Amino acid sequence: MKMPPRLLPRNCTTSRSIYQSLRPQRRTLIAAPSPNDGPLLSRRSDRALPEIPSSRKLWLKTLPIFLSILTLSTIAIFNYQKSSSSIVNATLYALRTSEAGKRELGEQIHFRDKFPWIWGEINQLHGRIDISFGVKGTKGKGMMRFKSVRKTRMGFFETQEWGLEMEDGRKLQLLDEARDDPFKHTALQAES
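RESULT FIELD:
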């Protein structure tokens, strides 16, 4: 018959020797290395932890940088939202199809800058649109301005101003009294 495995060490015979053999051994703490001690070749798990330098000065230095990056990112996100709105796309399309716009700017009319900056306000909830942005074509460059308001809560937007200011200072009114409003039955009316 086979004997059961021993649970206690062979040399343990009394309860005191059992306690002493199972008790963790006491080790002395080793101080953390100082900056001038040289390389640390071995590391014990029970060594003293190094002092943590105060990060308050670093935090105070990086906070303004973080806030400025946050502010610039927020402004860029809101500008991107305006530049990709249906209102800006509709006004740019109307400028491309306008005879006066083609005559002054030429063909291939699009934003003047690679990253366009849309100045002004697009507030469809309160019925106010007043924007301007740079445009260019094959013949020239200019700044297009568009202003439209909704007078009643459930009414349609009415275009008050749609103009183009060229680089040389000439101002052209693209909203013609003889021609119907090019923004009727477009995204501006559909969204209101």
